[in-house]
Design brief:
Length: 117
C-alpha cells in the first residue's frame, strides 16, 4: 500500500450519523413507484442520534433494477414533516430493510476489533 497516515482521529458525538449498507436478495423487495416495479438489490440506511437522543432511521437509499434491467436509485424519507417521528405511510417491507441494517450494525452500536500489528 502506497499511503501513510498520521494523527489521532476523533469523532464528535454532538450529532452522530451512521450509514449502513445491506445487500438485498434479488426479488425479495419490490418497490413500486408511478405504477412501475423496481427490484431492490442494495440499500443504504442512514441513522442519526442528534443531541444524544436515541438512534433514529432517517432515510433509505435503494439501488434497484428497472423492468428493462437498467439500474436506478430510489430514496425513501422515513421521518415525518416535523422530523420528530416516523412517517405513517412507509410500507412494512421498507421497515424490514431498516431492521436488517440496524441488526447488521449491532443496533448501530457497531462493534469492531482492530487488527493487531
Amino acid at each position: 500500500m502506497d499511503m501513510s497516515a498520521t494523527g489521532e482521529p476523533v469523532m464528535t458525538h454532538a450529532d452522530p450519523q451512521v450509514r449502513v449498507g445491506v445487500h438485498i436478495e434479488q426479488g425479495t423487495c419490490v418497490l413500486t413507484q408511478g405504477g412501475t416495479d423496481f427490484t431492490a438489490y442494495h440499500a443504504w440506511v442512514e441513522f442519526a442520534a442528534p443531541d444524544q437522543k436515541p438512534w433514529t432511521a432517517e432515510k433509505v437509499e435503494f439501488s434497484a433494477k428497472r423492468p428493462d434491467g437498467g439500474s436506478v436509485g430510489l430514496t425513501v424519507d422515513l421521518l415525518n414533516h416535523a422530523c420528530d417521528g416516523p412517517r405513517d405511510d412507509v410500507p412494512n417491507a421498507i421497515w424490514k430493510v431498516v431492521t436488517l441494517a440496524a441488526t447488521s450494525a449491532g443496533d448501530v452500536g457497531i462493534r469492531y476489533t482492530a487488527p493487531t500489528s
